[in-house]
Write a structure and sequence with these properties.
Elements: E1 9-15, E2 21-27, E3 38-41, H1 52-59, E4 68-72, H2 90-103, E5 109-114, H3 116-128, E6 132-138, H4 146-158, H5 165-176, H6 185-195, E7 196-199, E8 202-205, H7 209-213, H8 228-234, E9 239-244, H9 252-261, E10 266-270, H10 285-293
Parallel strand pairs: 3-4, 3-5, 5-6, 6-9, 9-10
Antiparallel strand pairs: 1-2, 2-4, 7-8
Helix pairs in contact: 2-3, 3-8, 5-6
Length: 296
C-alpha cells in the first residue's frame, strides 16, 4: 500500500552525526529551487509517508510550486534503528534534522511540525533559528495535555498487530474514528499505509517499539514539562497553529497563551479532525497553502 518509489519524489539517504543511515523524500522539480523549501517533520512514531499527499499538492502547484522534504527520524520508516534507545529523544532528533538540511544544502526553509515534529521545532529554534523562515505547528504547542498523551501511550503500547490490511483499517477506525468524523474511506487507507509498512502482504508497524515504550516511563502524577522558553524563541518567525477540532493534546488555553506571546501568530481549526489533522484535506489545505505562499 506504500506509494511507488517514483511517485513524485526522490528517495534520499544521509548520515547522522553518530553514523546512522537516515532517510528522507525530496519532492519537486529542480527548477523550483529559487523558492524556500518546505520541510515536514512527523509525529512520535510516524514517518515521511504521512505527508505524501500534502507534498504532492505543494510540489506540483501550478502557480507557486515548492520543493518539499519529508523526513523519517531514526527508528522510523526507512531510517536505521538505533541500538542505543536513549537516543530516541528530542535533542538527538533535532540534530538529525540539521544533518538532513546540511546534506540537502538547505540553508533556510518553511517547517511543518506535526505533534513531536512541532516539539522538535521548539528545540531547533534554540539551536538554529537561522534555518527557520516560518513554521506550521500541527496540533502541538509548548504545553501538552496529560490526558491526550496518556491516550497515545495506551494505544501505542496496547494495540495488537493486525494480520491483514482490512484488519488494520478496522482497527484504526475503531481507535480513532470518533476523533476523525471528517475522514473518508480513502483517507483511512492513506493513514494505514503511512502507519504500517507492507511485509509479505501484511501490515507491520513501521517504528522501533522502544520509541512507544518510552511513554510508559512518564510519571503522570507530576506536571508535564513545558517548552515556553523555547516557544518564545520560535515566536520570532511567522507561525500558523493548526488545531484539530477534537484534539485532546493541545488545549484552547494553550493556543490563547501562544497568541499572547506572539501577536503575529495565526490559527486554523481543522473541522472533524483530532490529533493530528491531515493537512491535505480540503477543509484545511487552502489556508495552509496560503500561509506557505505568503513566505517568499
Amino acid at each position: 500500500m506504500e506509494p511507488a518509489a517514483n511517485d513524485g519524489f526522490r528517495a534520499i539517504t544521509y548520515k547522522s552525526d553518530d553514523g546512522l543511515t537516515l532517510y528522507a523524500r525530496d519532492y519537486g522539480a529542480p527548477e523550483i529551487a529559487d523558492r524556500l523549501p518546505v520541510i515536514c517533520l512527523p509525529g512520535l512514531t510516524r514517518n515521511s509517508r504521512d505527508f505524501h499527499s500534502l507534498a504532492l499538492l505543494l510540489s506540483t502547484d501550478s502557480a507557486t510550486p515548492r520543493r518539499v522534504i519529508t523526513i523519517d527520524y531514526r527508528g522510523r520508516g526507512h531510517s536505521e534503528w538505533d541500538a542505543n534507545k536513549a537516543n530516541y529523544n528530542l535533542g538527538v532528533e533535532a540534530r538529525d534534522v540539521i544533518s538532513a538540511c546540511q546534506h540537502l544544502k538547505i540553508e533556510r526553509g518553511i517547517f511543518i511540525g506535526t505533534s513531536r515534529g512541532g516539539l522538535l521545532l521548539h528545540l531547533l529554534a534554540q539551536m538554529r533559528l537561522d534555518l527557520i523562515a516560518a513554521v506550521i505547528l500541527n496540533d502541538i504547542g509548548p504545553k501538552i495535555e496529560a490526558n491526550g498523551l496518556k491516550r497515545i501511550r495506551d494505544y501505542l503500547n496496547a494495540a495488537a498487530a493486525p494480520h491483514s490490511w482490512p484488519e488494520a483499517l478496522a482497527s484504526l477506525k475503531a481507535c480513532q474514528g470518533r476523533y476523525f468524523p471528517a475522514l473518508q474511506e480513502e483517507d483511512w487507507r492513506e493513514m494505514a499505509s503511512a502507519i504500517y509498512r507492507d511485509t509479505d502482504g501484511k501490515p507491520v508497524a513501521d517504528f522501533d517499539p522502544a520509541i512507544a515504550a518510552q511513554l510508559l516511563a512518564i510519571d503522570f502524577a507530576q506536571p508535564l514539562p513545558d517548552l515556553w522558553p523555547y516557544f518564545d524563541e520560535l515566536a520570532k518567525v511567522p507561525i500558523l497553529v493548526v488545531k484539530g477540532e477534537h484534539s485532546d493534546l493541545i488545549a484552547d488555553r494553550t493556543v490563547d497563551e501562544m497568541k499572547a506571546r506572539c501577536s503575529s501568530l495565526s490559527t486554523l481549526r481543522a473541522p472533524g479532525q483530532g490529533h493530528a489533522p491531515l493537512l491535505h484535506l480540503e477543509s484545511v489545505f487552502p489556508r495552509t497553502w496560503l500561509f506557505i505562499s505568503d513566505v517568499p
